Amino acid sequence: MRDVTERIFKGAISVFIKKGLQATTQEVAKEAGVAEVTLYRRYSTKENLFVTVIKNVLEKKFDSHVLESAKEKDTELFLMKIIEDRLELLSKNTDLVKMLLSESLRGNLVNEINLPDIIFSSLKKGLEYHFKLKNQTVDIDFCARQLGGIFLSYVALPNGKPFNELTALEKENIARKHAKSVLAII
Fold first, then answer.
1. How large is the C-alpha radius of gyration of the chain?
2. Cβ(7)–Cβ(32) under 8 Å?
3. Which of 79, 86, 107, 122 is 20 to 30 A (C-alpha) from 66?
4. 132-162 pLDDT tens trace
5. How far apart are CA 169 and CA 2, in angstroms?
């Protein structure tokens, strides 16, 4: 039973990354090596299958460490940790991220799997927590949008090597530059 679920999830994510919600259950079933009726028995609709699969992937891959990082006393180091972590994660999952952004812009994603909302929400929570600990008043929404813009730029406007293929020093330098730019405006 678990093997079938894993095959369905693997096949579905593969097809959904390529085609988004335009993918058919027939394509998913073929990729997963199961009958199409099996998909309907388990998930009733393509949309339920999509939400279930994407939610599973987001929980596994995009678990945020922002709140943990928010305990860092030095704001620049805190921002660097967030920037490095998110850019690493986004660059390792570029195709999935692009598909989710595309579906989000079309208004096709429910809140529980809307990646931009998930990222923005976790950023805001981490920023609120960090600046509350420091007893510092900051426009959290503006700061989160600045960070979101940095992340989006690396997905939409790739520059040379993907972030996850850079050396540790290159990653640190990029994170430091962006952290300093965010600090300059808050």
1. 19
2. yes
3. 107
4. 999 999 999 999 999 999 999 998 888 888 9
5. 42
> What is the per-residue pLDDT for 108?
87
* Spatial CA neighbour of 115 closest among 182, 32, 17: 17
Q: Which amino acid is at 26?
A: Q
Identify the DSSP state of 134: T
**Six-digit token pair at 102?**
């595309």
pLDDT at residue 59, as a whole number: 75
Max CA distance (Å), the chain: 58
d(CA 11, CA 53): 10
The residue type found at 136 is Q
User: Tokens 């095959």 identify what position?
Assistant: 7
pLDDT at 111: 80
Across residues 94-118, what is the average pLDDT? 86
- Can you tell me the mean pLDDT for 87-116? 88
Q: b vs e for 115-130, b when ≥16 Cβ sit within 10 Å of the residue's Cβ?
A: bbebbbebbbbbbbbb
Burial of residue 78, with CB atoms counted within 10 A of its CB: 0-12 exposed, 13-18 middle, 19 or more buried: buried
- Measured distance CA(78)–CA(135) in Å, rounded: 15
pLDDT over 70 (residue 48) = yes
